[in-house]
Specification:
It is a single chain. The protein is of the alpha+beta class and about 675 residues long. It folds into 3 domains: about 5-205 and about 225-440, Neuraminidase (6 Propeller), CATH 2.120.10; about 460-505 and about 555-675, no CATH class; about 510-555, no CATH class. Helix content is about 15%, strand content about 30%. The longest helix has 16 residues, at about 455-470.
Length: about 675
């Protein structure tokens, strides 16, 4: 059994290991993101989190009453956004993701709790949301689910929403609560002492398992009384919380981390109670209320808890292990960057949504970047886990006023990683607003929060229309065709704009050479297999197969009607399927290097050897028509396409059949394909 490391010793070791990242040689790209005002009038807003989809192994799938709460339009609809506010003593609001300019009433008690209204009340500082509703015998029966709520983390894997509260401010007792769909602390709570509210020093660890495993019943009975394994408490306001996953004790119960006003980090076991994790001073909180202290957890390849350290312009990086009873702190490192300016909140740029043990909006998918809210200058920073600044963003309100210094309060990333939810306060105002902006990386914004109306939508339509024109264009030598090719246009092999030709003359020929004695594939043209083009500019006659080839595989063109959707699949969802399905056979994730040199999961091609739709289109230009593209995975100069043509055709494919530019150009494409069909 690994020996636990003293949190204080780990902190001191981390101080020796912590080396701030050097200032980058050049500034990361900075993008201006138009923001949609989702809701305004939020009274003292703090943390924000998209609800997200609950996995089948958790209580929401097995309890019919719970399932009602996650239906479309209901308070825990997976697409809705939860916001913690101070108004009325504290509340958590559920806001429709598509809302626009909704004004929250000053009297939160007037909000509906279970209809399809744009803003609904999930939980509040009221008797109907007290711990005693379901846990009358708990030590914290009088405490509510919310009391000046600060931060939200949803256990989408196998649990419920968790809320960090600072009911008495910075130095008073903090609470961490676990809530049911009715907004009250959970019923049938595993902990008799805490019920659904862990508070101050009143709910320390009370037991440990005597054995691991043994089935569901054994989880409850195979335990003995125990005091705390690591000293710690919620003895100051709780300003952040994040799911750590199931306890290492084998019980299967959830454990969350919580950061308090002393700069300490505690761990909360939903059955056993509170232990320490990192000592006071791990984060520099100071004497003023921080609002929130952002947290995000990486579960693979190693367990790492990131905590915002705004006063020191850095992130604390807590490396975690376990002793088979609790999580233990191994050491504390730090991420520093010239582009961190009071980082008040952090979120996974790609949240973990697929893994049934770790899915949460506060959990990073494998290798994901961090998104940081810089309160100091009002920017968002995309930060790699090695401290490299990937990209920055300035947020622009609809009235043309940017989100400025001191205005950012909290952020969250949507489950599909395409949108960022931002809580901000206008200068001179006492209330806050919820904004929606596009996610972004070094290549620019992913998509506008409102594609139909946001600035840039016209450019997107123009790009898609240009892509439709290129799709039906007959290329010639003068426009880049050849010298070797299979067809002179995209539409020749993809009739109707997105179809797949069944004419064998349009099939690609993949050739190889196999040793007739051993059956081993031999290199052909420097590779195991190669494409054999059908035509050449130098001759009107069809090209023969290479003489060395003795294997020919005809490959039908791909239907493109839903090709763009492959780009929308989270990496984590793909990785989660690379497991045996009961027969000992499983697939492997194929990571490929793109034109920018970065490795990504392959989604396109015969062996998933192309990472993105843009690159797939570029590869088709190069392989099928001989139009060399700079975006092609193995492209070599000189290039006839600098990437603009490939991106335009990709935009056309993303527009979808019967929508956008496809509606206008569809008949022309059909006619063009009919004219060219042999």
């Amino acid at each position: 059994m690994p020996r636990p490391v003293s949190p204080r010793a780990a902190l001191l070791a981390g101080a020796l290991l912590s080396v701030p990242a050097a200032a980058p040689a050049q500034a990361p790209p900075t993008w201006t993101l138009p923001a949609r005002v989702v809701a305004s009038g939020l009274p003292g807003a703090h943390g924000v989190r998209e609800v997200g989809r609950f996995h089948a192994g958790g209580p929401f799938a097995s309890n019919p009453e719970f399932m009602l709460g996650v239906q479309p339009g209901r308070v825990l609809d997976p697409t809705r956004v939860l916001v913690a506010v101070d108004g009325g003593g504290g509340a958590v609001l559920s806001i429709a993701a598509g809302a626009r300019g909704v004004v929250v009433p000053a009297d939160l008690a007037r909000l509906p709790a279970g209809t399809g209204a744009p803003v609904q009340l999930y939980s509040a500082a009221a008797p109907s949301f007290a711990n005693r509703v379901h846990n009358a015998g708990a030590r914290t029966a009088a405490e509510g689910a919310v009391a000046s709520p600060r931060y939200l983390s949803v256990n989408n894997a196998f649990g419920r929403p968790w809320i960090a509260n600072a009911p008495a401010g910075l130095r008073g007792e903090g609470t961490v609560t676990v809530t049911d769909p009715d907004g009250a602390p959970l019923a049938n709570a595993p902990s008799d002492a805490a019920g659904g509210v862990f508070a101050g020093r009143r709910t320390p660890r009370t037991g440990v398992p005597t054995s691991q495993g043994g089935g569901w019943l054994a989880r409850w009975w195979n335990r003995r009384a125990s005091g705390q394994l690591t000293p710690g408490a919620l003895d100051a306001g709780a300003f952040g919380t994040a799911l750590l996953g199931a306890s290492p004790d084998g019980s299967g119960f959830a454990v969350f981390a919580a950061v308090t006003g002393t700069g300490a980090v505690a761990q909360v076991h939903v059955r056993e109670g509170v232990d320490g994790l990192a000592p006071p001073g791990t984060i520099a909180v100071g004497e003023s209320d921080p609002g929130v202290i952002g947290m995000a957890f990486e579960w693979t390849p190693r367990r790492t808890l990131y905590v915002a350290d705004a006063r020191r312009d850095r992130l604390a990086v807590l490396r975690l292990g376990d002793d088979e009873r609790q999580f233990v702190l191994e050491r504390v490192d730090h991420l520093a960057s010239a582009w961190l300016h009071e980082p008040v909140d952090i979120a996974p740029a790609l949240p973990e949504v697929a893994n049934p043990r770790f899915a949460s909006g506060t959990t990073l998918a494998g290798g994901a970047d961090l998104l940081v809210a810089n309160r100091g200058d009002g920017t968002l920073l995309r930060l790699a886990q090695d401290g490299r600044a990937v990209a920055r963003a300035v947020l622009m309100r609809p009235d043309g006023r940017p989100v400025g210094p001191g205005e950012l309060r909290a952020i969250a990333v949507s489950s599909d990683a395409q949108r960022v939810w931002v809580v901000a306060r206008r200068a001179g105002r006492a209330d806050d607003e919820l904004l929606a902006v596009s996610a972004f990386d070094a290549r620019g914004p992913f998509a506008d929060a409102d594609p139909a109306t946001a600035p840039g939508a016209a450019a997107l339509r123009t790009s898609a229309a240009e892509g439709a024109r290129l799709f039906s264009q007959d290329f010639t030598a003068a426009t880049g065709l050849g010298p070797l090719f299979n067809a002179t246009s995209c539409v020749a092999c993809h009739p109707g704009g997105r179809g797949a030709s069944a004419n064998e003359a349009r099939f690609a020929r993949r050739v190889a050479r196999v040793d007739p004695r051993s059956g081993r594939v031999l290199a052909l043209a420097g590779a195991d297999s190669a494409l054999a083009p059908r035509h050449a500019l130098a001759s009107d006659a069809p090209l023969a197969l290479p003489r060395a080839a003795n294997v020919v595989s005809l490959r039908m063109p791909l239907a493109l009607v839903a090709a763009a959707r492959l780009d929308d699949i989270d990496d984590a969802a793909i990785e989660a399927q690379a497991v045996a399905k009961g027969d000992g056979i499983h697939g492997r994730v194929h990571r490929v290097a793109g034109p920018d040199g970065h490795a990504r999961i392959g989604r396109y091609g015969w062996k998933a050897d192309v990472a993105s739709l843009d690159e797939m289109v570029a590869a088709a230009f190069s392989d099928e028509m001989g139009v060399a593209s700079a975006l092609a995975p193995r492209g070599r100069p000189p290039f006839e396409d600098d990437g603009a043509m490939a991106r335009a055709v990709a935009a056309f494919l993303r527009a979808g059949p019967g929508t956008g530019p496809g509606r206008a150009v569809g008949p022309a494409l059909v006619a063009a394909s009919q004219e060219r069909a042999p």
